[in-house]
Design a protein that fits this description.
Elements: H1 11-19, H2 24-33, E1 36-37, H3 38-44, H4 50-62, E2 66-69, E3 79-82, H5 84-87, H6 90-100, H7 115-125, E4 134-140, E5 143-149, E6 154-156, E7 165-169, H8 171-177, H9 183-188, E8 192-195, H10 198-206
Parallel strand pairs: 4-7
Antiparallel strand pairs: 1-3, 2-3, 4-5, 5-6, 7-8
Helix pairs in contact: 6-7
Length: 212
């Protein structure tokens, strides 16, 4: 339990007692993809301080949401992994991603962007009733991410995998491009590049709900 619990018999208050501290849900976001070592988390979450990261990980362990694990070779050392209860926070994280999408129109110069966060946006915004199988690559100045989208999952793909569609632009443009209704204006403004056959581009657009 946190040092200052809300003291309310309410599911929201009880949840925030465990994951409402600053940085906590961002740590969960990072661990949803795969287990990570302390140093990897510290780099991915910069500018988090090492003291805060250590404290939040201890709290998550005490709450039964994170455990230490030994990664598969060739990785060495110890890593942190979500428990089943911790992984069950994925819909919560994705709901925040969807809600916060409208806040991504203007990026401050000091704000960091990392390719895995683009992948999280795709996972949060893709339609649950989607069909087919499509490989898409999103490329921002900070790097790219390649994803295979199937009816049952959105999975990382090797960068050597040939994508069906490539979207290129800055972080703001790529975030907005996941709403098909905004793509024509992004293309007209030259903020978004699209590579792929017309059929594949249409298939990609169908994976996301307009205005979602």
């Amino acid at each position: 339990m946190p040092a200052r619990p809300y003291g309310q018999f309410c599911g929201l208050a009880k949840s925030l007692d465990l994951v409402g501290e600053r940085w906590t849900l961002l740590i969960v976001r990072e661990l949803l993809d795969r287990p990570k070592r302390y140093g990897d988390l510290l780099g991915a979450l910069a500018p988090i301080s090492t003291d805060i990261l250590a404290s939040r990980l201890r709290d998550l362990e005490a709450a039964g949401l994170v455990v230490k694990t030994t990664p598969s070779p060739p990785a060495t050392g110890r890593a942190y992994e979500l428990t089943e209860d911790g992984a069950a926070l994925e819909p919560v994280v994705d709901a925040f991603v969807r809600w916060g999408r409208r806040l991504l129109e203007h990026r401050r110069p000091s704000e960091v962007v990392r390719p895995p966060w683009l992948a999280r946006a795709v996972r949060a915004l893709v339609r649950p009733d989607r069909t087919g199988d499509l490989v898409v690559r999103l490329v921002a100045p900070e790097g790219g991410v390649t994803l295979r989208i199937t009816p049952g999952a959105v999975e990382d793909a090797e960068d050597t995998t040939t994508p069906d569609v490539v979207l290129t632009g800055d972080a703001e443009a790529l975030a907005r491009a996941l709403d098909p209704t905004l793509v024509p204006d992004l293309l007209a403004d030259g903020r978004l590049g699209v590579e792929g056959s017309p059929d594949d581009v249409r298939r990609l657009a169908a994976l996301f709900a307009p205005g979602a």
